[in-house]
Write a structure and sequence with these properties.
Helix 6 packs antiparallel against helix 10. Strands 1, 2, 3, 4, 5 and 6 form a 6-stranded mixed β-sheet that branches. By secondary structure, the protein is of the alpha/beta class. It is built from 11 helices and 6 strands.
Amino acid sequence: NADGTMPVGSRTVTEGYLRAIRAPLVGGSDCPPFRMDEKSRAVMVNQRSLDVHAPNQNLVGRVLELVQNGPGATYTITGILGTMAEDGPAVTPVPFVYVCSAPGWWPDPEYVVRTADARALARDLREIVNGIDSKRAVFGLRPLQEAVDGAFDQPRLDAAILSSFASAALALAGIGLYSLFMLVVADRTREIAVRLAIGASPAGMIRLVAAAAARLLASGLVLGVVLTAAAGRVLRGVLFGVASFGAGALATSVAAIATCSALGSATPTSSAAKITIRRSTNRGSAPASSIRTIQ
């Protein structure tokens, strides 16, 4: 910023916490033992901090000041951690500062414990805490994997809603294509009947209608790809793990639309080969009174 400050996120941690979650150490060292008499406390920063604020520099040993903690609160950078998803999987990681502290420093700390039996550990933890302070509540106990999976709930919901709308749109597109090509075949009934009468093959009539369907499909696919590229930023913010112009997702969409179009135009296309002169005359003949007058 213009005043020399750099926007970062912050979290108070202990060395044991970082080991428990197996935070990757990129450079420097982990949080040292906490000492209240030190003038400058220790902090660690993530790789994203280097990439954004100090590319190609070594920040280990540098001193920084956290503005939110008041003037004069200096901290020495002891190590660099790998970038972790602090704000959820759908949010782009930002520069983060991890303030090294003593266990239990925060009023309501969160503990991470590794164990082979989560249920037994939960029971033992409650007994230990109750023995220290019976009024102290133990809450939010759950496996770390469950917490990680819970972070995907909103992206899953977004994807499910988008999928339902996409399925409805695909079904409507199939119905619309079916109706459109039935209308096209009905409007060209006389032409198709005449072509068949003068020697055109039924297969040729099928190719005639199929070619019209293919042209319409190709135009729609080109327009859809262009609109998808234009709306890439919106899609990237809603769908986690899917690139704005991902080849896999785009190919799947094109295949689904092509299949829907083929199914929607199959019946009208095949009906073009079954048109006869009698059917054509009946479909477009004049009223009986008019026929008698012409005769």
